[in-house]
Amino acid sequence: MPYVLLGIAQLAVGAAAIFARYALGGAAPLAVAAGRLTIATAAIALGFALHPVRVPTTRRQRLLLALAGVMLAAHFSTWIMSLDYTNVAISTLLVTTTPIWTATYDAIVLKRPLTAAALAAFVTGGIGLVLVVGFDRTAPPFPGHEVLGASLALIGSVAIGAYFTIVREVREALPTRTIVSHTYSWASVVLIAAALIARQPPPPLGNVPAWGGIMAMALVSQLLGHTILNACVRWFSPSAIAFATLIEPVIAASLALVIFAEPVPPLAITGGVIVLLSIGVVLREEARSKWTGPRLDLDRSI
């Protein structure tokens, strides 16, 4: 079941780049990110209203969740902003470099080095990603600022790695619904404030494609995808979860083929297969390692 949930989460999150393309057609990046998190937060609040569950939290836990929320806001704002300055494929590639940062943290701080097989899988996964995105020729809306776009995507990658690392500190004590209600709320507040300061209003109510993109990002990519990823921290380390996100460029390319009729070169298909195999190796090594996450408990975690 944990592997099935992880796969569902990656499919939902991988579709975010497609949804973002529609959303950015009618609003600026900070407004899109704020709309995504605000709608997701409202949905969770409605769930609490219908099925109230009170879970006590300590001051330290609340502070950690607030910090995680800020990191989540940084992730979404910088990644969505990067789509204006570099193409979808490159942005998605760079924002999924999170395993580099989480693995480095685990190795240095937690003294948990990668096995030889996992390290080799990181290399082959990177090669696969290069094959997936290396032939993309989609021009960004504002060409000429590719370095800025790449930098924003990398910042987003570090931010989401920090998010999952912080969440791991409270994962044992708190259920997923409590965690995401705090982190999504903080992220929503930060993004709304940032959008107001930057004078980036939401799209006009009549802009159906833009609002459709924002709603899809909120309900599918955020509420379904990222919430399940939070639950997966119970069974996988942040490094393994981050590495599994390498499938996102593959999902985005596949959806672009179906929705926008964007062709996928044979080498890109080969790269997708390599990425999938590499993820399988990392997850296998994760199961064999000394990482001992809690057992599956859907009632408590979801």
Q: What features would you highlight for this structure?
A:
single chain, 302 residues, mainly alpha, globular
Explain what you see.
With 302 residues, the protein is mainly alpha-helical. The chain has one domain. It has 14 helices and no strands.
Assign the structural class, choosing from mainly alpha, mainly beta, alpha/beta, alpha+beta, or little secondary structure: mainly alpha
Mean pLDDT: 80
- Could you tell me the strand content as a percent range? under 5%
The number of helical segments is 14
Helical proportion, percent range: over 70%
Name the helix and strand elements from N-terminus to C-terminus, one letter apiece: HHHHHHHHHHHHHH
Q: Give the low-confidence spans.
A: 291-302
> Can you count the beta strands?
0
Can you tell me the number of structural domains? 1
The largest sheet is: none
Global outline: globular
Radius of gyration: 18 Å
Report how far apart the termini are: 13 Å
